[in-house]
Write a structure and sequence with these properties.
It contains eight helices and 15 strands. By secondary structure, it is α+β, with helices and mostly antiparallel strands. A hairpin with a 2-residue loop joins strand 10 and strand 11. The longest helix is centred in the middle third of the chain and has 29 residues, at 164-192. The N and C termini lie far apart (136 Å). 21% of the residues are buried.
């Protein structure tokens, strides 16, 4: 048997050994796979704390976890304490435009004495008979109205939601009550007001507006001459009439929002529901929006009085259904002392 190894075989064996050794060595400078991070709520909290203590690796973890696209479940959504509400308001322009009083403590009606015939005095000749007219009086009967609303909701909603829920509910119910009261008063003012004998076809021009106000002032004075203050003081306008007031101009110069007080016909602003028009206090009432009858009311505040008492709140728990009912109500009354104490525009 021939055991001789040739040089060629030796070279092949050495090269194979070198190749095997090289394959076993790690590759220096090659590519590598990025380690996977464990994104869980517990890990996120842990690394947030460590990052706050100066741990650089924890900072890198938090930066990676705050990628809102890949890890949206770990990024909290905060809810603000403020509540946006574009539906409710507690303003009562028609009530603000008249006088106020306190509701009597009992009864669903009350009475106010009113002079219906005043005595007279006349020039009398010597030994002549004096003027003799008996004074007469009667009573104005005023109806007391209840304004009430309620809300029914589950006990879970009250117990397991933000405390702001109940506070906002009460605010909204108060706003709804104010809206109902104001609409009630506005309707009575319009129905009882003296209609202008001069009609307009649409929103009044500057000249037509001054005509309505001047005729209204004279009419109200004649009707309320016996009152301590027999003059018109308030002008209640719809939102449509308010918008028209701001357009009235003299050769382009706004009449009712002029910047020079010495030459201003009043103050009507787009950022305020109160102002002054031709000497009358303006109250913009959103109960009405257009230019129909009564959307301009010239009023003597003393001819009408709004009486109201405290507001009450009730709560009833229904055990069988697990519900809660909250009632919100109060009483109010409008005393029309002199119906002709208001004067309204008359649309043709």
């Amino acid at each position: 048997m021939d055991n001789t190894v040739t040089n060629a075989e030796t070279v092949e064996t050495v090269e194979a050994a070198q190749s095997t050794t090289a394959a076993a060595k790690p590759i220096v400078g090659g590519s590598f796979t990025k380690p996977r991070l464990e994104f869980t709520a517990a890990k996120y909290v842990e690394n947030t704390i460590r990052a706050a203590m100066g741990d650089d690796q924890a900072r890198q973890y938090v930066l990676a976890a705050d990628n809102t696209t890949d890890n949206a479940g770990l990024v909290p959504t905060r809810q603000m304490a403020e509540v946006v509400n574009g539906l409710s308001t507690t303003i009562r322009p028609s009530i603000d435009a008249i006088s106020r009083g306190t509701l009597p403590d009992a009864g669903m009606t009350f009475e106010i004495p009113k002079i219906t015939q005043a005595p007279t005095v006349a020039v009398t000749a010597e030994e002549g008979t004096p003027s003799d007219t008996d004074q007469n009086s009667a009573f104005i009967t005023v109806d007391v109205k209840k304004f009430a609303g309620q809300q029914t909701f589950s006990v879970e909603l009250l117990d397991r939601t933000s405390p702001a829920f109940f506070d906002e509910l009460i605010r909204n119910m108060a706003a709804a009550k104010a809206k109902a009261e104001n609409a009630y008063v506005n309707g009575l003012l319009i129905s009882g007001a003296t209609a202008d004998g001069t009609t307009t076809t649409t929103y009044p021009t500057a000249a037509e507006l001054l005509g309505i106000i001047s005729r209204g002032a004279a009419s109200v004075y004649a009707a309320t001459a016996g009152l301590p203050r027999p003059f018109a003081k308030s002008l209640i306008a719809s939102t449509g009439q308010w918008a028209n007031l701001m357009t009235l101009n003299d050769s382009g110069r706004p009449i009712y929002n002029a910047s020079q007080p010495s030459n201003a016909g009043g103050v009507v602003r787009p950022d305020s529901l109160v102002g002054n028009v031709a000497g009358l206090d303006l109250f913009v009432d959103p109960t009405n929006a257009g230019d129909g009858d009564g959307t301009l009311l010239v009023v003597n505040p003393d001819a009408y009085t709004w009486y109201e008492g405290p507001t009450f709140r009730l709560r009833a728990d229904v055990i069988a259904s697990g519900q809660i009912t909250v009632g919100y109500y109060g009483y109010g009354a409008l005393a029309t002392k002199i119906a002709a104490g208001a004067f309204k525009n008359n649309k043709q």
